[in-house]
Specification:
Helix content is about 35%, strand content about 10%. With about 425 residues, it is α+β, with helices and mostly antiparallel strands. Helix 9 crosses helix 12 and helix 10 crosses helix 11. The protein is globular, with a radius of gyration of 24 Å. The structure holds iron/sulfur cluster. Iron/sulfur cluster binds next to helix 10 and helix 13. The site of iron/sulfur cluster has 14 residues, from helix 10 and helix 13.
């Protein structure tokens, strides 16, 4: 699970756990030998501070070896994931690609990001190309990844890198942190991976690993400063970028949320949660309060020339700047029986059976869909437009609104390979 995005309610990713591959089947730890001990640590091996933990674990802790970067890097050199944005051993990382991938991976899985990443790079191969692109083109290339505030910040960041840094990403965590949409994690990750700065990049995977290794008993998010301090203490001066990626890989492939494969873990011996048999109890979390269900109506109008009525949402707020068929307000007590008061134009409306459901980060939504056909000469109401059905893929439609259109029209045209 990655850290939470800064923006207010936003679309969920394809899967709740970010930066993760499907968890491997965990072998039975009792049946496997522990990993061979790692080489002697270098002189710069950091020593992790003691974490807060339950008293009953103190005896084990004092006897167990300390987690260290050297053991993890030995494992990483053998088992690192081959990711398209990741420099191969001996190659220099491209800051633009590292930054782009880090923004895309927030709250989204590696598998979901890959096709978007390739398409995005094809359209915007450099930070200059991205900075110069129209906002609509950026939003359209992003559509489907969710969390649309990230796309707006991505565009703003590219413009800032070009305008303020001559098209070169700054190389320090502090300078990166000043860029639009670059938070503490992204700044540290880009500084470490692209510039080999000794920065501690702490995302959801890292929080999980560290909270288990040190049995951090405070729940998230209260535990964040402690986990950050524990991570910082482990960052090696010589390979900080590899260390950052190694912890991410460990969290994504071995120290998974469920059934971690502890027998394959380079930190199995020092891991306090594993020693106590409490791996899945960490990280501690405060139970989430689920958002209240909201309801609304969506109006899909098909003109006789096979065009669909759309509008653009306001630039700020939920799905800001995205396209949609007109909808009513979304409220917990919305009554579909009153929906005609919200219809965008006069027509013979047909209420379609069923509802379209979509889950946003902070609330689930149910939309009742109304459909109407209108004559060719029907004008679009103010601030709305007709988009030919065959060109709907060029609109920046979020996943929720694609569901509405599919519900009403029975499908959407496939985008060409270059869009
Ligand atoms: S030993 Fe298990 S719980 Fe501990 S860090 Fe490794 S995989 Fe995670």
């Amino acid at each position: 699970m990655a850290r939470k995005a800064k923006a207010a309610p936003i679309e969920p990713s394809a899967a709740p756990e970010a930066r993760t591959s499907p968890p491997p089947a965990a072998p039975d730890a009792a049946l496997l030998d522990p990993p061979s001990s790692a080489p002697e640590p270098g002189a710069n091996r950091p020593v992790a501070p003691q974490a807060t933990s339950a008293p009953r674990l103190e005896a084990d802790r004092s006897a167990a070896p300390q987690a260290n970067a050297a053991d993890l890097l030995v494992w990483y050199d053998r088992h690192r994931r081959d990711l398209p944005w990741r420099a191969k051993p001996g190659e220099t990382a491209d800051p633009y690609r590292v930054w782009l991938s880090e923004i895309m991976l927030q709250q989204t899985t590696v598998a979901a990001v890959k096709p978007f990443y390739f398409r995005f790079l094809e359209r915007f191969p450099t930070v200059e190309a991205l900075a110069e692109a129209p906002t609509d083109a950026v939003m359209q290339a992003w559509a489907g990844l969710g969390y649309y505030s990230r796309a707006r910040n991505l565009h703003a960041c590219a413009k800032a890198v070009v305008a303020e840094h001559g098209g070169r990403f700054p190389g320090t965590e502090a300078a990166l942190l000043k860029l639009p949409g670059v938070g503490a994690y992204t700044a540290a990750a880009v500084a470490a991976i692209a510039f080999n700065e000794p920065a501690a990049a702490v995302d959801g995977n890292v929080e999980r690993v560290m909270s288990r290794v040190y049995t951090v008993d405070d729940p998230l998010p209260k535990a964040k400063p402690q986990i950050r301090a524990l991570t910082e203490a482990l960052v090696p001066r010589d390979r900080p970028g590899d260390f950052a990626q190694a912890v991410m890989d460990l969290g994504a492939t071995i120290c998974t949320p469920k059934r971690p494969a502890c027998a394959l873990c380079p930190w199995m011996r020092p891991c306090q949660a594993r020693a106590a048999g409490l791996q899945e109890a960490y990280p501690r979390k405060v139970k989430k309060v689920e958002g209240q269900l909201r309801r609304g109506a969506a109006f899909v109008v098909l003109r006789a020339d096979d065009s669909v009525l759309l509008r653009t949402r306001p630039p700020k707020g939920l799905l800001g700047g995205m396209a949609e068929p007109p909808t009513s307000e979304w409220t917990p007590d919305y009554a579909a029986s009153q929906a005609m008061l919200d219809a965008p134009l006069e027509a013979r409306w047909k209420r379609l059976p069923g509802v379209v459901r979509h889950v946003f980060t902070h609330f689930p939504l149910e939309l009742t869909v109304f459909f109407a056909k209108v004559p060719r000469d029907t004008a679009a109401p103010d601030e709305m437009r007709w988009t030919p059905r065959a060109r709907l893929h060029e609109e920046a439609l979020p996943g929720s609104m694609k569901k509405v259109l599919v519900h009403a029209l029975g499908g959407l045209p496939n985008p060409s390979p270059h869009t």
